[in-house]
Write a structure and sequence with these properties.
mainly alpha; RNaseH_domain; RNase_H-like_dom_plant; nucleic acid binding; RNA-DNA hybrid ribonuclease activity
Length: 118
């Protein structure tokens, strides 16, 4: 959930006003889409809900792990002792390969269609 919070904060600061957050962790998506009531003391989830209340459109979507290969690869590339944001001017080579592979599978029968048509 930390990555969701940091990503949302960065997207807001950069001026994005429509955001789709995909995760293969169903419980995280359920929590993010859950009750937006404020707890007695702030939690990471309450900070995410605060960001959701800003003037923008945020959708949380659960995706199957096999459709989340890019995020999975980035997570595996991360250093376990580093919590700093690591921006990339271009995707790392491993990610470029995965993106090319995904382009070839967009029209496969197993691909997930966007129900909103977006």
């Amino acid at each position: 959930m930390w990555g969701t919070f940091v990503g949302m904060s960065l997207a807001w600061e950069l001026g994005f006003r429509r955001l789709v957050i995909e995760s293969d962790i169903l419980s995280a998506i359920q929590l993010a889409n859950g009750s937006k009531t404020q707890p007695a003391s702030p939690t990471l989830l309450s900070y995410i809900h605060d960001l959701c209340r800003k003037q923008w459109k945020v959708n949380f979507i659960h995706v199957r792990r096999n459709f989340n290969t890019v995020a999975d690869c980035l997570a595996k590339m991360a250093r376990l002792d580093c919590f700093d944001l690591v921006p990339y001017a271009q995707p790392p080579h491993e990610i470029q390969l995965l993106l090319r592979d995904e382009e070839g599978h967009e029209n496969s029968p197993d691909s997930v269609a966007d129900p909103t048509g977006g």
